[in-house]
Design a protein that fits this description.
The complex is a heterodimer of chains A (about 150) and B (about 130).
Chain A: H1 3-19, H2 25-32, H3 41-63, H4 71-88, H5 91-105, H6 109-142
Helix pairs in contact in A: 1-6, 3-4, 3-6, 4-5, 5-6
Chain B: E1 16-20, H1 24-36, E2 40-44, H2 47-55, E3 62-65, H3 74-83, E4 89-94, H4 99-107, E5 112-115, H5 120-127
Helix pairs in contact in B: 2-3
The chains are: A mainly alpha (about 150), B alpha/beta (about 130).
Amino acid sequence: MEVVQIQRNLVDYTKSLFMEGFLDGQFLQLQQLQDESNPDFVAEVVSLFFDDSQKLLNELTIALDQPIVDFKKVDAHVHQLKGSSSSIGAQKVKNACIAFRNFCEVQNIEGCLTCLQQVKLEYYLAKNKFETLFRLEQQIVASGGSIPMIEMGF
Amino acid sequence: MAAQGRHGGRKSNKMTALVVDDNMVNRTIHHQLLDNLGIENVAVGNGKEAVDIHCSGKAFDLILMDMDMPIMNGIEATRKLREMGIRSMIAGVSTRSMEQEIREFIEAGLDDYQEKPLTVSKLISIIRKIN
């Protein structure tokens, strides 16, 4: 495939992630921090996010499986996940965390378990989307092209 | 020639900052935001580490303080730093948005408060308040 076509695909794909609400303006902020001195900044931060989130999801699974659930602990983990998802612009993960915290507040175990499944689902969807995004970027760079800047009007 | 940050901040002015956040993702982003403005910075993972680094004799023009952290949270750390006579600009940076939640943090000795996620424009508005 010609590099111009892959660049077009990347722009369309990125725009679709914003239109579908997977990403918000914070992701553009992240992209603006990347330059020649740190060309992999976004990919590194996103990778940190997924590693960290995986640990938190494991801890949440264990915490909600206890005979007596420590909702303060559960809420602290969800708070962490909400903070980092909002920092990278992973909007659907962040929104799932907001709903989760509401059930923590009223100590509703069933609601928390449903939300945990939803957060896990959004986590895997986001991971998949980011992987596709970075793969397209790598294809462009490998073909000698440059990554097009995305303007979303935020 | 003095090194310049991407947004024109001169490294030669020696403005320094301390990032206090237990979340690795946020630490990395805040570090890069400051770097791009030409502000030398180091990051620590909780309030106690922020107090310890000051006890070791280091000083900073700006401290970006998270609120919810293990071992020592941002409220306790800010209070402790002020008790120690630290007069640096301390800006609270947290996901908390409820007025009553933020009030205790501000009363601990903050100069400014910004809701996460931190952006270039929010950071510039904090820096403008220094001096």
